[in-house]
Amino acid sequence: MSAFPSQALESVFNKFPPPQNPNFSYGTAGFRLGASKLDSIMVAVASLAIVRSLSCLDETSTPQTIGIMITASHNPPQDNGVKIVDPLGDMLPQDWEPLATKLANCATFKEFEKIIKPLWTKYSSAASSKPAKLVIGRDTRESGPRLLRICTELFDSFSDKLVIYRNFEELSTPELHYITRSFNDVSFGVPSESGYYDKLSNSFLRILKLYDISPDVLVSTTVDCANGVGADKLKAFLETSPSLSSKFAIVNSDTADPLQLNVQCGADFVKTNQKLPNGIDSDLASKDLSLCASFDGDADRLVCYFCDKPSKKFILLDGDKIAILLSRLISTLITQLPENNLEIGIVQTAYANGASTSYIVNKLKLPSVCAKTGVKHLHHEAMKFDIGIYFEANGHGTVLFSEKFTAELKKFEGHSKAAEVLLLLKELINQTVGDALSDLLAVVASLAILKVDAAEWANTYHDLPNKLSKVVVKDRNLFVTTDAERRLVKPPIQSKIDDFVLQTKQGRSFVRPSGTEDAVRVYAEAETEEECLRLAEQVVHLVENYS
Ligand code: G16
């Protein structure tokens, strides 16, 4: 068995020492905070990723590849974050998160070694001392290269008998998830950026061909890339797919100035403020046969929108609307199969607009599940269905197709166009995590196949007026929720929220601590704009008074 590399680890640990009394926690999407505070966390995460790889053995008892993604997605430019991606491209299992938290909070190497050494030794022995395998990527944040180098410095301090890694530098979050899985599952794709682009463009163009749809007639889409990594990746994708390049125009693509990231643009800005981003005006957004879309800072969220022509009113097509559009296409295709017993389900969070959930249950007659915020929670629930469609209202989501789905559909291959299209959708829609580019292509294909324009899509149902507020509090950990984050256990203000809700027509409101920002979020919806704003103010006031 290879010896535990105590000295090498200690020297890197001491080079990037933790602060006094560290109090970090692996949250909704890994560790996320001011970039200057992340150095010691990188050492903890890189070490844990090695152990995770050693613990995930394939059928030949060889460690599988684990991903490390350095990003803070929708957060402001000065933040950064890091998360671990499991062999199949999903998130680090939740029962490993406390370990990540513990390692990040070790104040001395002695404490750190006490936790990591027994695990490393145990798993390395089970892996017959074969090396751990890792892939690493980062978004365009200014702090990204420096934080990434802390990880590679750690890996380089070991011999390659202990760790083999591939550094991809700049990647979108969904690319990193795709590449991680492809290293472990050759049937999933080629583990490279070009493999990812080919998989998307081939499946997309083949779907269009089955319906004789020329790319020229697709809706023209203007994409706000949040001045983030999605801009570079969308450009690269369009270079590899010239037949699509005239249908997608990119705005907010300034990745050379890291301070512009997510500023007045991007999916989070558009969804939260319910207005157009910088770079897209109401004339552009109301052009015929067009659509606007926003990616977030690491290109794993998508929202679409347009402006109504005569009134120039902004109309948002958020994650709820995307889920419903995709479920409409998938349900239509399923009914065209010669036979099937596949169960489709839709997973949302408490942020889903009440009107969307009613539409799913009452019109689509599909099962609807409410999960806690965080794609890891939704992903888990969606896996319980043969076809699990999951989207957060903020545009983070995807559609998971099960093994049963593939087995059933393969039976009809060659004699059912619907089966062929469904199998291609499984290729097009990222099976590992929400993916703005893949979701956008799925939306554009759905609109073309269903012969629906943005206005008709928006009219599927009408959102109840809603408002999401962010309240900065002294300690967000004082806010504890239950019932998929729809009710507060602590502090004792839930009954007051209930009273406000009862006084509001079609009212709904909840309070939850953010897992990615130092704040508490307050959501409110109601029958009218006025009542919604009143409810939001009342609940925000309650929270402010309590903190
Ligand atoms: C992350 C998570 C999402 C979550 C969002 C906000 O998104 O992956 O699932 O909705 O944070 O989370 P919270 O309200 O807990 O701050 P992203 O796109 O920032 O990685």
TrEMBL record:
The UniProt record lists the Alpha-D-phosphohexomutase alpha/beta/alpha domain at 65-97
Q: Per its Swiss-Prot or TrEMBL entry, what cofactor is needed?
A: Mg(2+)
Q: Which reaction does it catalyse?
A: N-acetyl-alpha-D-glucosamine 1-phosphate = N-acetyl-D-glucosamine 6-phosphate
- SUPFAM superfamilies given in the database record: Phosphoglucomutase, C-terminal domain (SSF55957), Phosphoglucomutase, first 3 domains (SSF53738)
- Single GO MF annotation: phosphoacetylglucosamine mutase activity
The Phosphoacetylglucosamine mutase AMG1 domain covers 190-303, 318-449
Catalytic residues at 73 (phosphoserine intermediate)
Q: Function of this protein? A: Catalyzes the conversion of GlcNAc-6-P into GlcNAc-1-P during the synthesis of uridine diphosphate/UDP-GlcNAc, which is a biosynthetic precursor of chitin and also supplies the amino sugars for N-linked oligosaccharides of glycoproteins.
**In its UniProt entry, what is this protein called?**
Phosphoacetylglucosamine mutase
